[in-house]
Design goal:
The chain is built from twelve helices and 23 strands. It has 456 residues and is α/β, with parallel strands linked by helices. The protein has three domains: 32 residues; 210 residues, Rossmann fold (3-Layer(aba) Sandwich), CATH 3.40.50; 175 residues, Ribosomal Protein S5, domain 2. Strand 20 and strand 21 form a beta hairpin. It is elongated. The termini are far apart. This is DNA repair protein RadA. InterPro entries: AAA+_ATPase, DNA_repair_RadA, P-loop_NTPase, RecA_ATP-bd, Ribosomal_Su5_D2-typ_SF, Ribsml_uS5_D2-typ_fold_subgr, Rubredoxin_2.
């Protein structure tokens, strides 16, 4: 007997006997899907095994809560390692290195004795093997691969192999037989993800699960927004395919800091962890090799301070309106800083094109780099270089006054660790100055004070 089907909106849950192009309840287009009336998409789910609520004080926490890999930048972004009963999703543009990074993590865990299952709905087993040969010479006996698009078959393999670490690449390519909708539909994606959550959170046999998620043209995780709420951690790889630098950041982490960022270099041997990014984001110059237009600041990516080089170029404009160019900074923000220099430091920039860039292409997201941006412009305009052992940390207000920034002590200690001798900052406490031994803290009240001390 043929099962009865109905039409359900995957956005608001509206159910009807007929098809609509536009949902009558939430007014969304293209969200109506045909599902079986008796399927899990309609009926409510109840657990076959009822558990009792426990007092929080009686629950025993596990000592080995996290598993650390040998990939330090990955550990940092995850909050110190992978939580044993967690489910995470990794997304990025095609070719950014999602599968490469996860295979490196899988290989690292397998060498530590953990059993790994790599299930792919996009690549054949031979393709996975070719990547493995490229990344590592010795393939562990603990890595299993399985190529299929039916999640039911993957679940059978999981029961037989009993892996500790599971990779689903990608979640949009898998389907469950009980749902008639196509792969990558909101119903299939969410139900497949729910299955993996149940697997990861099983109290008797917790597992580490990583889902690979496809990315849309708008650089967002493909699928329903509820997918991000479902998982514990959402990781994003950023970076252009033609460049070797990749940044791994977290937009959600139940077990660590949100906004944490790690850096990698994409090489022929895979993703190489960039454990000391300050060395990468600044040009190494010797004393006497300084160039005009370069200034150094200390920015924070997540919880970590990084020395960042900011370069500026000022050139005469032959057009009625001078250009303000900077991929690393908003044009409006750059125009504001230039206006402060003109009004508070009496520098003529109205007829000058100003171009700003950062080494490595890091975006200037916080105000702590404002002083360094302005000093790089001043250095270029006056054609006078700044000493290589100098950093600038501080915000600059519309009045030209220097403003304090968060985590100033942390930034100064990073500059001291990297061997810098002078730091131009707003007013700091005596406690911070006493905690620093090898760097001279030069307090300034206004941007004009800084210019006079540097360019004298």
């Amino acid at each position: 007997m043929k099962k009865k089907t109905v039409f359900k909106c995957n956005s608001c849950g509206y159910i009807s006997a007929g098809f609509f192009g536009k949902c009558p309840q939430c007014n969304e287009w293209g969200t109506i899907e045909e599902v079986e009336e008796s399927s899990g998409a309609i009926s409510s789910k109840t657990s076959s095994k009822k558990t009792k609520a426990k007092k929080l004080i009686d629950i025993k926490s596990q000592d080995s809560f996290r598993l650390k890999t040998d990939i330090e930048e990955f550990n940092r972004v995850m909050g110190g390692g992978i939580v044993r009963d967690s489910i995470s999703i990794l997304t990025a543009k095609p070719g950014a290195g999602k599968s490469t990074l996860l295979f490196q993590v899988a290989n690292d865990l397998s060498e530590k004795g953990y059993k790994v299952l790599y299930a792919s709905g996009e690549e054949s087993e031979n393709q996975i093997k070719q990547r493995a040969i490229r990344i590592t010479k010795d393939i562990s006996q603990n890595i299993y691969v399985y190529s299929d698009t039916i999640l039911d078959n993957v679940l059978v393999e999981i029961d037989e192999i009993d892996p500790d670490f599971i990779i689903i690449d990608s979640i949009q390519t898998f389907t469950l037989n009980e749902y008639p909708s196509r792969a990558a539909s909101p119903t299939q994606v969410m139900e497949c993800a729910h299955k993996m959550v149940e697997l990861a959170k099983n109290q008797e046999r917790p597992r580490m699960v990583f889902l690979v998620g496809q990315m849309t043209k708008e650089d967002e995780l493909a699928g329903a927004r509820a997918l991000e709420h479902l998982v514990d951690t959402v990781l994003i790889i950023e970076g252009e395919n033609q460049e070797e630098l990749r940044s791994l950041l977290t937009s959600k982490n139940r077990y660590g800091s949100t906004g944490e960022m790690g850096f990698f270099l994409m090489t022929e041997d895979g993703m190489m962890s960039l454990d000391n990014p300050s060395e990468y984001f600044m040009t190494v110059r010797k004393k006497g090799e300084e160039v005009p237009g370069s200034a150094l600041s200390v920015v924070r990516e997540g919880t970590r301070p990084i020395i960042l080089e900011i370069e500026a170029l000022t050139a005469r404009s032959f057009l009625p309106y001078a250009s303000r160019i900077g991929e690393c900074i908003r044009r409006e923000h750059l125009s504001t800083l230039i206006s402060i220099l003109e009004e508070r430091a009496s520098l003529r920039l109205i007829d000058k094109n100003v171009v700003i860039k950062t080494t490595g292409g890091i975006k200037l997201k916080e105000t702590a780099s404002n002083l360094a941006v302005m000093m790089s412009i001043v250095s270029s305009l006056l054609n006078k270089p700044i000493d290589i052992d100098t950093v600038f940390i501080g915000d600059v207000g519309l009045t030209g006054e220097l403003k304090s920034v968060p985590s100033l002590e942390l930034r100064l200690k990073e500059a001291e660790r990297m061997g810098f001798k002078k730091a131009y900052v707003p007013e700091v406490s005596d406690r911070i100055k006493k905690s620093l031994k090898d760097i001279k803290v030069i307090e300034c009240k206004t941007i004009l004070d800084v210019i006079e001390k540097i360019m004298k």
